[in-house]
Fold this protein.
Amino acid sequence: MPGTDIRDIFVAGLKNAHAMENQALSIMKPQLKRIENYPEVAQRLDAHIRETDGQIVRLEEILDSLNEDNSTLKDMALSFTGSMAALGHTVAGDEILKNSFANFAFENYEAAAYKSLLVVAEAGGYGAAVTGLQANLTEELAMAEWLNDNLAAVTAKFLSLRQVGETAKV
């Protein structure tokens, strides 16, 4: 495959990842505002929002090094869909559980995107991008692992709150 094809694939993937991270923020920020009874989830979500901001900066640095910009249209479109997804869970009586499931799925989706981008970076000789992409992947995997490790506790707390008549509000 000619190098320009790999470059095009790499740039498109970076722009998609940038939009994906903006989508993640549009999902997590409304969740964080609504959390009342799950301080451990709020703390981890807040930390991951800060990580996501850093991931966006890393992606912008990689794009800048290639004399490319992020796709404003993709960023806006995915941010909108993320906001709508987050809004959809607010009417559910088990919002914290639905958010936990969706966040776990999304973190694994993001990890898969970074794994793929790392392969393209290696194939295209974009070694300078590997450190930033690996850092993003590591953070996504850590968040997915945290969600996985804490799902049982979140579910148990949800049940406990419901049993004593609490609304189990996120």
